Amino acid sequence: MTTHRLPAGITGDRTGWRCLLSESRRPTRWDAVATAATLVTMTVATILRTSEPTAPGTARLVFLVLAWLPLLVRTYWPEPVLAVVLAVEAGQLVVMRDLGAGLVGGLAVAAYQPVPVATMLAVYTVASRRRQRDGWVTGAVSAFLLLVTALLFQEIELIGTDVVMTELVLIAAAVGVGVRARQDTRARRAREAREQSRQAVLEERLRIARELHDTLAHDLALVDAQAGVADYLLDLDPPAARRALRDITQHTSAAIDDLRATLVLLRQDVDETDRPTDGPDPDRRADGDPTRDRALPPVPGLDRLDGLLDRFRDAGTPVSLDTVGEPASLGHHSDLAAYRIIQEALTNATKHAPGAPVSLSLRWAPRHLEVEIRNPPAGLPTSTRGVGTGHGLIGLRERARAAHGTFDAGPTRDGGYRVAAELPIRAHHTTGGPGVPGPDAAGQTEEPQP
């Protein structure tokens, strides 16, 4: 038989008495002080219940001790301690029926002393360790039991004392509920902070994975394609094979440069990426990091589209470009998203439909840019084509959503594949009207952030 024990500080699902003990703990210094202060209060209240200090009788002293002793373990067993204390103080009201003898006027309020001081601390302990609703129920039930006992076994003239006793118990419950509410608020805020931290870490991991995927995937796909071409032409056309091998070198160098730039950007803070990179920063050189002395290459956008298409064409993928409308200036996220979507779509076409022609269409509208990439069915057998994981398309959908755009991808009726996205165009407020770039727009390109 295997016994499973919970680690310290972790509780599982419990029922019955185990639930009552779920929040039991060792008394703290303040718990000990409160318990000792309660004994002092009960003793002083008993002695000074009349106009002159009076030594308590034997019966009153016995009830005082019996009501206080369970409070020593109230943090271990809050509910059982409350039940015992409540029974002792109710028993005092039942047994000592002459509590109001000799007390007149305002002194009658203290007739039941030390009742209900011990019950107040016991009720507070339960209310501060249980759910707020349970705390109110505990206080109401305790006050009701003492009130009924006093009405049944004490003189009716002490009705005012009964009301004061009930109010004191309810006040103790209210204080305990307030403490519990503050603890719940702190615990909720701590949970929310942990959840936010966990979500931030997860989002950062996804961002790093997306950047690395977008940076390396297309270069490695081109390397794979060029390696196949070189292997095919090695015997038939050695000069062409050498050109293919040189292209592989260029693609691997580009992949290394892009990877280095991506890692540097990922390591930077937001404030650092906003700084100009016109020249080296002496403060950065002092840190001893040589990579900080270099101006970072710009994050890719549609201004680098021609070079991207040329690399795929050199790898043997026929790519046609059709532009409709007047190009406009995109925002940071839209420009980067458009480039990455085209890059990933061409990479997928190269892997899954090698040699098939790919058509790229850019349709500029007044408020958005429509990007569409299509390729026909692959001419190679299914077994020779790569199998993707779908992570690239997921990342593209996230990029489009981050740019407040839309993304769609899926097979076409003829067996080909289509990737489409709609990205918003940044609004320009110039004399030329909304949505029209100003005269300096062509010469100013903001650096998009990944």
TrEMBL record:
Gene3D superfamilies: 1.20.5.1930, Histidine kinase-like ATPase, C-terminal domain. Residues 270-302, 427-450 are annotated as: Disordered. GO terms for cellular component: membrane. Residues 204-269 form the Signal transduction histidine kinase subgroup 3 dimerisation and phosphoacceptor domain. Keywords: ATP-binding, Kinase, Membrane, Nucleotide-binding, Phosphoprotein, Transferase, Transmembrane, Transmembrane helix, Two-component regulatory system. Pfam families: HATPase_c, HisKA_3. The chain crosses the membrane at residues 103-124, 136-153, 159-179. Residues 270-295 have a biased composition (Basic and acidic residues). Residues 337-425 form the Histidine kinase/HSP90-like ATPase domain. It catalyses: ATP + protein L-histidine = ADP + protein N-phospho-L-histidine. CDD domains: HATPase_UhpB-NarQ-NarX-like. Its EC number is 2.7.13.3. The keyword Transmembrane applies. One of its GO terms (molecular function) is ATP binding. This is histidine kinase.
